[in-house]
Amino acid sequence: MAIKIMICDDEIDILDVTQMILEDAGFEVIAVSDSLNAEQIFLNEMPDLLLIDLWMPGISGDRIISSLKSNVAHTNIPMIVLSASDTGKQTAMSCGAEDFIPKPYDIDNLLDILNSHLIEKSNSKY
C-alpha cells in the first residue's frame, strides 16, 4: 500500500507540480486547493503526512495545523509547511509543524525531508 500524502496549496501550478513529483516518487497524493475544506478532507483521508502552504485564502495553514495537532490522534502525523513566507519557518514551528520547506523548493530536498519524516514516523510506531 502506497504512503498517502496530502498537499494543500492554493497556487494550482505549485499544487500540480508537487503532486506530479510525489506521484512519480511512488506516493499516493491527495491534492487540495481549498483551505476551507482541507481539515475535513484530512479527517476523511487520514494521510500519512500533510504538506501545507501557510498563506491561503480562507483558513491559513498554521491554523489548520494547530487545529489538527490539538487532537491527540493526529500528533504522530508529520505536518510540514511549504511556504514562500519570510517568517514561514518561525510560524511553522510555533503552530506545531514538524518542518518547513521554503518555496521555491529543490525537488531532492523536498523528497529527502518528506522521507526522513516518514521514516521517523514509521520507527515511532514500534
UniProtKB/TrEMBL annotation:
UniProt superkingdom: Bacteria
Keyword Phosphoprotein carried by entry: yes
Domain Response regulatory: 4-118
Matching InterPro entries: Bact_response_regulator, CheY-like_superfamily, Sig_transdc_resp-reg_receiver
CDD domains on file: REC (cd00156)
Keywords: Phosphoprotein
Protein's name according to its UniProt entry: Response regulatory domain-containing protein
Native source organism of the sequence: Pedobacter mendelii
